[in-house]
Amino acid sequence: MVTRTIVALTAGLCVQLAAAERPLFGGSSAYAGNPGHRQARSAAGDTDAIATPPGFTSVHAWLDSEEHWRTFVSDKPVVDKAVWWWQRDTTTPVTISYVQITGPGTKGAVFVSVGNTEPLEKHAEAIWGLREQGYSPVFAIDHRGQGRSSRLLDDAYKSHVDDRHDYVVDFRQFVNLGVAQLAKDTKKFIFCHSMGCAVTFMYLIDEHRQGIPQQFNGLAANAPLVQPNTDPFSFGVANAIAQAQVWAGLGESYPPTLGGTLEEHYKEGAFATSSTTSHARYTRMKDLCFARQHHTYAAGHTGLCVGSATANTALEFVNLAKDFAAFQELATDLAVPVLVQQAALDRTVVNAPMTSFCSDAFRDCTLTVYPTSQHNIWWEADAIRTPALAEVYAFFDQQDVVQPHPVTTTTTQPPKKQCKWWQLSC
Question: What's this model's pTM, rounded to 2 decimal places?
Answer without folding.
Answer: 0.88
